[in-house]
Amino acid sequence: MTNQELQSLKNKFDIIGNDPALNRALEIAVAVAPTDLTVLICGESGVGKENIPKIIHQFSRRRTGKYFAVNCGAIPEGTIDSELFGHEKGSFTGANEMRKGYFEEADGGTLFLDEIGELPMASQAKLLRVLQSGEFIRVGSSKVLKSDVRVVAATNVNLMHAVSRGKFREDLYYRLNAVPIIMPALRERQDDIHLLFRKFASDFSEKYGMSKISLSPDAVALLKSYRWPGNIRQLKNVAETVSALESEKLSSRSERCEINAAILGKYIPKDDPNMLPVKSFSPEDAVSQSEREAIIRMIYQLRHEVEYLKEVVLGHGNAPVRQLSAAAMHPQEQREEADWQDADVSEVPQAFPGRVIHLGDGTERTVDEQQEDDTLSLQKAGSDLIRKALEKYKGNRKLAAAELGISERTLYRKLKNIND
């Protein structure tokens, strides 16, 4: 598209901005519009994803057909199938008459499914069938109906992550993602932020007869430095709030009101890193306590083996390394004698006593001194894990020993060493 065509498109759909990523998204929408390919629009909430399906519909051969926008996240799970595919009279409580669904109503047109990631799994299977064959069944009916609908979907979540967690069908994802369109976040469109603010403030002043708002250079810098987690929607709210509270009714003396950073700062929320628009964390993603302690056990065991192997390779080429290799290759067979569990210094391999180690900071230590420090740290790690295991099982040593992966006899011995 030429710059003139692109600007004409933006004017028609009231799109503000000159960011290259935004322009690319608009160009893809126009290019794919004449086809019937399914489009998946990805972007954070508030970036203006709803403009893309309108452009696709207007530039397609279906422009004379109906256009429907459905927010899948706003429809209760129990009624989503009825909304999309319709229902027969008496199919459920409250179904007093037959009702056509959006797929039937939009036959020959375009259907925009927003927040597609919120669609229940059962409804996803039905949607997949419609996309593949155009067939669907009303709720409470056994008659197969057909519909010719162009589907454009949008999401503000990572659908691949949802697929990996079993929350979204993989086959449906690839069916929807025939043509992906990425809408950039507002913080990625630095040069458009002030332009959008001026547009929103100007529209507000014209609508309510208020003084026009302008920003000082320091206020513009503040505007661009904020990350705008709510994107364009949040920026519009701020612009309108500032216009309403800081401007005055138009008069011969006051037609424009300049806002500096100090005033603007009162209307911009303080930056909270916990509100960054990243993938949501679920308790299902957390590492359990037992897994964490198992990881700690292996880390300390491997740490000592690496230190020992380093001395073997760098300090004394003829040292017996075969025994170490066996322990490293089969840690489950050496679990009771793992170095992180031992409380006796005598059980730590005393390789090359008196040999000097050259440390990275320029200092020197003997092997004996280094091993003594390593042993103390490993002793503390082992003691902490033993106490945690006993606390977890309220002093039951048999269960604690099983948790730690050692015998009950070994646990008694180590408790004795800790208490001594």
What does this structure look like?
This protein is of the alpha/beta class and 420 residues long. The protein is 47% helix and 10% strand. The chain has 17 helices and eleven strands. The protein has helices at residues 3-12, 20-32, 51-58, 80-85, 102-105, 121-133, 159-164, 170-176, 190-208, 217-225, 231-246, 261-264, 289-315, 322-329, 367-392, 397-404, 408-419, and strands at residues 39-42, 67-71, 110-114, 135-137, 144-146, 150-155, 179-182, 212-215, 256-259, 356-358, 364-366. It has a five-stranded parallel sheet with strand order 2-3-6-1-7, with helices on one face. A two-stranded antiparallel sheet has the order 4-5. A hairpin with a 6-residue loop joins strand 4 and strand 5. Helix 9 (190-208) packs across helix 11. It is extended and about 85 Å long. The model is unreliable at 276-287 and 316-360 (pLDDT under 50).
Keywords:
alpha/beta, transcription regulation, two-stranded antiparallel ribbon, five-stranded parallel beta sheet, 17 helices, 420 residues
Write a short abstract of this structure:
The chain has 420 residues and is an alpha/beta fold. It has helices at 3-12, 20-32, 51-58, 80-85, 102-105, 121-133, 159-164, 170-176, 190-208, 217-225, 231-246, 261-264, 289-315, 322-329, 367-392, 397-404, 408-419; strands at residues 39-42, 67-71, 110-114, 135-137, 144-146, 150-155, 179-182, 212-215, 256-259, 356-358, 364-366.
Sequence stretches where pLDDT stays below 50 over 5 or more residues: 276-287, 316-360
What is the beta-strand fraction? 5-15%
Number of helices: 17
Q: Within the largest sheet, what's the order of strands?
A: 2-3-6-1-7
Q: Let me know the number of strands.
A: 11
Question: What's the story with the biggest beta sheet?
Answer: 5 strands, parallel
Give the proportion of residues in helices: 40-55%
Write down the Rg.
33 Å
Question: What does the average pLDDT come to?
Answer: 79
The global form is extended
InterPro entries: AAA+_ATPase, AAA_lid_NorR, Homeodomain-like_sf, HTH_Fis, P-loop_NTPase, Sigma_54_int, Sigma_54_int_dom_ATP-bd_1, Sigma_54_int_dom_ATP-bd_2
Keywords: ATP-binding, DNA-binding, Nucleotide-binding, Transcription, Transcription regulation
Pfam families: AAA_lid_14, HTH_8, Sigma54_activat
GO molecular function: ATP binding; sequence-specific DNA binding
